[in-house]
Amino acid sequence: MSSLQVITAPAKEWIAALNRLTPATIGKKAVPILGMVRIDPVVPSLFAVGNTGTAEADLISDPGTGDPFLVSYAWLRSAITSTTGRDRSADVKVALDAKQVTVEALGYKLRVETAPISEFPEQVTHHVFESHIAVDAEALRTALGRALVAASTDDTLPTISSVRFKSSPEGLTLWSTDRYRLTSGFVPGHGYGSESFTVPLSMLKHMAKQVKKGSVHVDLAKVGNVVFRLPNATYTAAGIEADYPKLGELFEITPTTVMDVDRVQLLEAAKVAHHMSERNTPAYLTISEAGVLTSFNDGVFGPDSAPLAKGTLTGEPVRLAFNSFYFLGLMNSFKGEKVRIYGGSPGKKWHFIDGGADTKDATLYRHILMPVRMPHQ
């Protein structure tokens, strides 16, 4: 090992690299050494190991000298942010001397004990993949954001506290569910192989914040790991091996009611219904030829109601009841001028897609929401 292990970079670059490690640094660690980050001065890069995967982030700086070493992630972050204050352009020097790591910035010199790098997990490099797909980062970020809305947050159900992916030469399909909501989305791309894999929610919800511009390469390794390669970071997640529910067939339906409604008007109604509803009471949607009328607090002090969201109805009028929190999350996931609502029985699943879209187009973002039982049913 080199006697001089040191690297210097502006504070803003250190902080950016540390932020990119977040997916692997959140949560309680199984052993204390996993709270460390490995710094490779020569590459230069940072590497962290989490409970469900690993993260590697490029450090934008001139190469340093010496072999890799360890430092506490939390301590390093605090040392850099506290010493540089608002001067994020200030240089920060991080060096290892024997068993001591030193951070120097703006006249400050802070020290902390390191740990033997031999006790830190090795970084696995994958060379053989079952499938590979390259997709646009912004499109993937949008698809992940929509999938995360419906993914279960119940840690006792790890199989659905995740997102299901299917890679094909044409693109990447994503599914998610918490048993009350289902989503399906598609990101076009190019690659090889047709494989399915499931990635834990704990990794994805933080990784999604780092998916910004350029291309993202999504690879399934032969050993079962899923590798996401971003322009400045690489995330490796341990795939979940349990069988994921077969959601694709649930999106097939011959609707008896189809409503294209003004998205902004219905979104505003959903916001008020969620914030002003009495606890554990649903939001009601009355779908008619005039549009969609949202009401709430039915039988409490109301009914209270929102302005009519204008729309065009094809088929039968219907009255539905939804969990107001789920309904608001659903409406927030759409961006177009209109939303298409379609289904059959008021007591069964209802589908949401962009207004005017083809209900049979599997490449569209689709959201299913289960209604709640109304008192008179």
Explain the overall architecture.
The mean pLDDT is 94. The chain has helices spanning 11-20, 22-25, 73-84, 137-150, 201-207, 263-276, 324-332, and strands at 5-10, 36-40, 45-49, 53-58, 69-72, 91-97, 100-105, 108-113, 129-136, 162-168, 171-177, 181-192, 195-200, 215-221, 225-229, 233-238, 257-262, 283-288, 291-296, 304-305, 309-315, 318-322, 338-343, 350-354, 366-369. The chain is an alpha+beta fold and 377 residues long. The strands form 2 sheets. The protein has a 21-stranded antiparallel beta sheet that branches. A hairpin with a 3-residue loop joins strand 3 and strand 4 (53-58). Helix 1 runs antiparallel to helix 3 (73-84) and helix 6 runs antiparallel to helix 7 (324-332).
Describe the secondary structure blueprint for this structure.
Layout: E1 5-10, H1 11-20, H2 22-25, E2 36-40, E3 45-49, E4 53-58, E5 69-72, H3 73-84, E6 91-97, E7 100-105, E8 108-113, E9 129-136, H4 137-150, E10 162-168, E11 171-177, E12 181-192, E13 195-200, H5 201-207, E14 215-221, E15 225-229, E16 233-238, E17 257-262, H6 263-276, E18 283-288, E19 291-296, E20 304-305, E21 309-315, E22 318-322, H7 324-332, E23 338-343, E24 350-354, E25 366-369
Antiparallel strand pairs: 1-6, 2-3, 2-5, 3-4, 4-16, 6-7, 7-8, 9-12, 9-14, 10-11, 10-13, 11-12, 12-25, 14-15, 15-16, 17-21, 17-23, 18-19, 18-22, 19-20, 19-21, 23-24, 24-25
Helix pairs in contact: 1-3, 6-7
